[in-house]
What we know:
By secondary structure, the chain is an alpha/beta fold. Helices cover 32% and strands 16% of the residues.
Amino acid sequence: MKCLFCDQPITEIITWSSLFILSSQNTHPPICDQCNQKLELITGEQCIICSRPFSKLDPKFRKKDLCNDCYNWEQNPEWQGLLTQNISIFHYNDFLKELLAQFKFRGDHELVKIFAEPIQTKFKQTFDQKNSPILIPVPLSSERQYERGFNQALSLANLIEKQPIEEILERSHTEKQSKKKRSERLLADSPFHLKPDTNPKHYKNKNLLIIDDIYTTGTTLRQIAKVLQSLSPNSIKSLTLARS
Ligand SMILES: [Zn+2]
Ligand SMILES: [Zn+2]
């Protein structure tokens, strides 16, 4: 077996227990140890909304349990309480940047398998049967989807087994940013809307989980949360592979 990313052969230490595991299900990650070690899990104290690790944040940008950015979002009545939590798995380090570039921009779709185990584990740690959410992948514009051949957010959502995935969002063609003030622009120029055949009753009081690859400024996820809010769900959270 070869590492999906660097093509080096993966040497497996065969023990009786690994033989047993191999015979029941193949659980070995399709990545070599050297690459695997470059994936940095987010651990330790984090912003309770966006998962930003405080270890990598200057304390002056921290407001109690929140990072400065989330604090500012929550101060704004337009955005307050919309996205209750973003759960991120990895630090967006140079290695993951490279890995995601190969996955998304060079169309190496196989690489998604590398994220199967981490995303399933995180999902199981975070949600139980009672608060089990509907997964909503962030859509690409149709032009982008055509160029790329797949939507990475949907591919990631597909890794979470046995959860309903609903592609109820559409993204309009991304236009050049206008000269309005940032806060106005965020509201007026949201590129997201619900597909016209979305039945709001189906989502009322449900838990919704937006799926995307990277949390950067949180703007995209909040614009989506704003759209989803019209469905009166019980909660809107997001799960992202990486926190930059
Ligand atoms: Zn490797
Ligand atoms: Zn935050």
